[in-house]
């Protein structure tokens, strides 16, 4: 492992920690926004699951 470049996963974790939620409502809203973006990325422009994803949801 190259010591000049930090671990990508740790860098992302540090960035997540920098945006700590103020209270449980903020935490829930941030998590829901994350889940919504993740779910939306699994759909095509017609709102249907992408062809490569269809067998995962039987």
UniProtKB/TrEMBL annotation:
User: Per the record, which residues fall in region Disordered?
Assistant: 1-58
Q: Which domain of life is it from?
A: Bacteria
Compositionally biased tracts (Basic and acidic residues): 34-58
Ranges annotated as biased composition (Polar residues)? 21-33
| Name used for this protein in its record | Uncharacterized protein
Q: Which organism is it from?
A: Paenibacillus lemnae
| Taxonomic classification | Bacteria, Bacillati, Bacillota, Bacilli, Bacillales
